[in-house]
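pipeline: protein-struct stage 2 | run 1193 | Cytochrome P450
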Amino acid sequence: MDLVVILLLSLLCLLLLSLWKQSSGKGKLPPGPPPLPVFGNLLQLDVKNLTKSFNSLSKVYGPVFTVYFGMKPTVVLHGYEAVKEALTDLGEEFAGRGSFPVFDKLSKGHGLIFSNGKIWKETRRFSLMTLRNFGMGKRSIEDRVQEEARCIVEEFRKTNASPCDPTFILGSAPCNVICSVIFQKRFDYSDEMFLDIMERFNENVGIISSPWTQLCNAFPVLLDYFPGRYNQVLKNYDFLKSYILEKTKEHQEFLDVNNPRDLIDCFLIKMKQEKHNQQTEFTLENLAVTVFDLFVAGTETTSTTLRYALLLLLKHPEVAAKAQEEIERVIGRHRSPSMQDRSHMPYMDALVHEVQRYTDIIPNNLPHAVTRDIKFRNYVIPKGMTVITSLTSVLHDDKEFPKPNMFDPHHFLDESGNFKKSDHFMAFSTGKRSCAGESLARMELFLFLTNILQNFTLKSLVEPKNIDTTPIANGFASVPPPYQICMIPV
């Protein structure tokens, strides 16, 4: 009997605490739907499609509103003006990384993506400088991308026009490019370790994009007591981290401080330079997480976008045909595409942009946080508050893109057929926390897709009108449905 009373009292205290926390910020935070004790607004949100829920709430509460994930209030910014004002105009104030328990438990505050404060600033500065030194956005990295583009073509030729799942091939190419920068090596596509790494990447993205993850982010205690599939995420992460540390040991044995070969060498040299600094951010732990972040960021979003691109081209063969006509006219079939060609290929450039706009791979961006108490549109957002910026609301703005829910490269073409830039194109986010590898990803998407369309006609196993492009997961990332494709050599 005493145990029951204790449990009831504990539950009552929890409810009162929840009500107090949820009411204590009212009058300061932006408006939003009334939260329930403990659960907040979770029962009012579609955790399978938060984008849809945010769109509905914005119609009621405007472009700035508050939702409660469990007992935790989160400010949501919806629409181009609100997102731009926060991430660009007030970039420093919104440069924090918001809470994302599923990832926080992995990174433990280290690395490039989920760190904050001094460790983030130092790691990002180092990473950007090192990536530039190893050719990011330059001709030297383009040579590596072109090499992988040739490998993509060769691997698809091996299918002999038979139905194939393109997932592995399209993931291997960007992974090898980032490996060449991090490890100074590339993998053969049949390498067992490489196959294992790619499989673990794909598995983790699928799990982290599930509704279950949204629930765990709202109630982090579930990760400790009811981890479920999260155990597999941990196993995959530990495997990849161990591989990175193994490669780091190999680098330490043959390190030449006067001749760094790759990013790991540069990080190890930085560690030596700061070995007497007790507050240094350059540690083995931060190295492992930073390399992991670059590894994943340099592989997953690009490969997912490529996979989605081919699916959309199967769905819209008229778009593929028009792109191939431009490729034939500008490049022909006897030389490889280069980045110099892009300025002469407005339709292909528009196609790549439209793929990114339409697929909206990271629909709600990674969570931001404000770095100090800030007044934003007459509301007070306290320091540390998590802020979600809806990239979908920007990329699918019907004022900027007349047919936002239709795949149409003309969204990025003017009346004369010239490429048209758009400030609404935030596929890589914007501001202080924008994607560090944006220039590389742009290069890969253009060169990989151009090479594929130069060498193959894409054939679907089903009628284009019957192809469903609806993502199978839409939590952290939009994941395209699995499909088979026939690559017919031209």
